Amino acid sequence: MRILIVGGGPAGLTFAACLLRHGIQPVVVEKAARGRTGGYSIGLHINGWQVAERLGLVEAFRAKAMPLGAAHHLDRRGRKLFSYDYRTLAKAAEGRLLAIMRSDFQAILTDAVAGKCPIRYETTVTALDDDGSGVDVGFSDGSRDRFDLVVGADGYRSSVRALAFAPHEDFLRPLGYRASAWRVPLAKPLGASFVGMMDVDHQGGLYAVGDGTAATLFCWRDERTDRLDPEARRAVLQEKFGAWPEPVASALTSAIDWDQAFFDTVSQIEVPKWAKGRVALLGDSAWCLTFLAGQGTSTAMAGAYILAAELAQKGYAEALDSYEARMRPLVTRMQAVSRKIGGHYIPQSTFGMRVQSWLLPIMLSRPFIRWTTRRLAAPPLDIGS
């Protein structure tokens, strides 16, 4: 079986590694020059952890993990609102939880498939012609090739989904926020794993990477979904957060490489069916949980593992149906969690911010952490051996 994977991010590279494990050699195409990295952190949770164990990558991820410790939330004047400890979350997850920079995550996955399957960088798909017995694919370099199956793992604004299913807007469910993330040098240590600030309709903060830099994450209420150029992005960030004190102030005045940074609307993708003939969708291309759920990468990894296993055992049509049947309940649940969290993550009023400041430390404390994770975290999937 010849399989084309469009997208060399976590979903696409995990899928490639899983296919190789079954003796299936895919072809990966990625539009970026060196693969997508981004200056932000991602979490590895139970379902991604299970996949990492099967692929023998847990120790490599651990070696690059960011430090877990205290998280401090302040108001926009720098006064403490509340604190909790990520180590409590890790203990509740029985140690199967870590945070890692996307660039390190990407490098580990790339090494896992390097030399075993071709990865064509700076290449996009321009045409898909599914004639029922295979898919003729046109590429941006003018070449064409034929595959038994095409899997779009090319993210939230998937070109595969637009070519084979319908325009991006048809599947968009905006949650009413924008977000931005990039990496910054630290003039002095944060003194915690995370230091963030919040105000009505706004939240922003820095995660300590452990190497003298920090990963930022800013989110604010915004109903628009249009894309902005780099100058407009900088202006929006200054408008929303420019008056905030350290450590936000330094993050906003630092240089931002927009080729590596993230700036986009916070939206889910809702596709009624993740396969159409011999074209299928995986990860953010199919569902996009958003960072609010904190489970996007791990859910994509689980989907990649399950899809590869199904394809190794069944014909493509039956395999695609089984993959969706196994993944859809979890995705539906976590999308609902993401929508619910959004209203708490970005305070809608001063009163709401005060309630959150009182309630969150209790929910994330040792007596209540298991109850909280049962309600908000993804349950472990049976991904097989």
Describe the structure.
This protein is an alpha/beta fold and 385 residues long. It has one domain: 3-Layer(bba) Sandwich (FAD/NAD(P)-binding domain), CATH 3.50.50. It contains twelve helices and 19 strands. Helix 1 runs parallel beside helix 5, helix 1 packs parallel to helix 9 and helix 2 packs across helix 9. The protein is globular and about 65 Å long.
Question: Per DSSP, what share of the residues sits in E-state strands of 2 or more residues?
Answer: 25-35%
Q: What summary fits the major beta sheet?
A: 8 strands, mixed
Counted beta strands: 19
Averaged pLDDT: 94
The name of the CATH superfamily reads FAD/NAD(P)-binding domain
- Determine the oligomeric state from the structure: single chain
pLDDT < 50 stretches: none
SS field, number of helical segments: 12
- How many distinct folded domains? 1
Percent range of helical residues: 25-40%
CATH architecture term: 3-Layer(bba) Sandwich
CA distance, first residue to last residue: 22 Å
Structural category: alpha/beta
Gyration radius, in Å: 21 Å
CATH-assigned fold name: FAD/NAD(P)-binding domain
Assigned CATH class: Alpha Beta
